[in-house]
Amino acid sequence: MQEKQITGFSKKSKQEKLRWVTGAFTDNPAQAEAELSSFWHPDERLQRIIDGFSENTISNFPIPYGIAPNFVINGKTYAVPMAIEESSVVAAASSAAKYWMDRGGFHAQVHATVKLGQVHFYWPGDSARLHRLFPRIEQQLRQDAAYLTANMEQRGGGITGIELLDLGHLEPHLYQLRGSFETCDSMGANFINSVLEEFAASLERFLQNCPELPQPARRVEVVMSILSNYTPDCLASAWVECPVEQLGEPGKEAEARLMAERFRKAVRIAQIDPYRAATHNKGIFNGIDAVVLATANDFRAVEACAHTYAARDGQYRSLSHCRIENGLFRFQLDVPLALGSVGGLTKLHPLAARSLEILGHPSAAELMMIVASVGLAQNFAAVRSLVTTGIQKGHMRMHLMNILNHLGAAEADIQIACAHFADKVVSFSAVRDFLAQRREAVPAIQP
Ligand code: MEV
Fold it and tell me: How far apart are CA 333 and CA 353, in angstroms?
């Protein structure tokens, strides 16, 4: 048996890594190696680019890349690329998009695009004195970071503010420099982090060489310099609205009123109950993450930010709101989204570049509005199902298809199985038994 621990793994070639890991951790190394390498891209140049995104790469992990068409957002029609492994999500987004296309579409707005970064430091001196020095410090920080900000300024962005926060009431001698940034169409993480590290070095130099400070106060301990993924002012809203009666089919106004009222209550429950809020917001992220991933944006950053925002008053709540006033149904999502449509992997990843092309090369702000609208559509579809048919009906069909495909069912069997399970609970064993019975009864259609 091969050793399960290793030194120098990162130095090995891709083939050697693959051989080692399959040899040490799989039952059939030859088969595992063949399977993992079967997912390598046939275009070696492309595969090298993909390998370069991360470390210790041995294979690619495919997830479906789908399209949700008919998204009308602020009057413009989009076909939205979504990368997601969960069944029903793209179908639900597509159905909500079509539904709202006939009712005025989605409306969306970006309130601001401010990004934030922090330098945390301990300083033993007198707080009032540091505040008095701060205008000079700020000038120095900007001057020292100018070589990093020049390009961004030319694009209309850069540092928009620097604040000194005294956190001494929470932790003795702790301060924070909080920088605000405009990063235009890029997510800007590298830009912000470089500027913050320059701020830290500049602060140290300033205090060290400040003649009016006593010696002990010339020493500062910088703990860390890093952007904040909590960007509450990088906020987008998306909403849909229509008269309550128009929510249903013509002639079924009473049903529409009932649905609207149940829908409003379901969103209200997600406002007041964190257990429901988590599931409700998860439904929103089914849509958001899929587009964020398809455009090679950072979905972990987007999630961290929005979940913090959802808990901003001390309790985790729904990110969406619903109201019915004067016969008008309005459903809105407010979500901070720090996204980029240039830079990062947006050009390097061939499918991200293709997604952005399909979306019409949006600016970062336009992408924020698209992503917020898809999140809202996903949330609308999920809650509407929950308060009407229940979620399982739609899920079961996809589940059935996955099982049938897994069991290698023939086309004729698939159709008959769909009809058979239309009003029955779908489980792996029930589908397997059904297929076995079919094969016994009709041996000619064995796969
Ligand atoms: C499943 O991925 C998402 C839902 O649970 C969302 C919700 O309950 O609102 C259906």
Answer: 27
Q: Is 252 helix (H, G, I), strand (E, B) or coil?
A: coil
Q: Is 395 an annotated catalytic residue?
A: yes
pLDDT band, residue 444 (cuts 50/70/90): low
Task: Mark residue 368 as left, alpha or beta (left: phi above 0; alpha: psi -120 to 50; beta: remaining).
Answer: alpha
Closest residue by CA, ligand 1 atom 9 = 280
- Tell me how far apart the alpha carbons of residues 240 and 331 are, in angstroms, rounded to a whole number: 5
Q: What pTM value is reported for the model?
A: 0.90
Q: How far are the Cα atoms of 40, 54, 64, 200, 282 from residue 47, in angstroms, in the given order?
A: 7, 12, 18, 38, 32
Confidence of residue 262 (pLDDT cuts 50, 70, 90): very high
What span, in angstroms and rounded, lies between the C-alpha atoms of 108 and 102? 17
Instruction: Report residue 76's pLDDT band, with 50, 70 and 90 as the boundaries.
Output: very high
> pLDDT tens, 394-418?
677 778 888 999 999 998 899 999 9
As a whole number of angstroms, the longest Cα–Cα distance in the chain is 96
- Is 98 catalytic? The answer is no
Ligand 1 shell residues, CB under 6 Å: 86, 279-280, 282-283, 286, 382-383, 386, 391
Q: How far, in Å, from the CA of 411 to the mean position of ligand 1?
A: 31
Q: Give the DSSP letter string of 101-112.
A: HTTT-BEEEE--
Which CA distances in Å does 226 have to 117, 158, 219? Answer: 6, 16, 21
307 Cα distance to chain centroid: 11
424 DSSP 8-state letter = S
Q: Bridge-partner residues for 301, per DSSP?
A: none
Residue 348 tokens, joined: 């390097």
Catalytic residue among 198, 298, 366, 413: 298
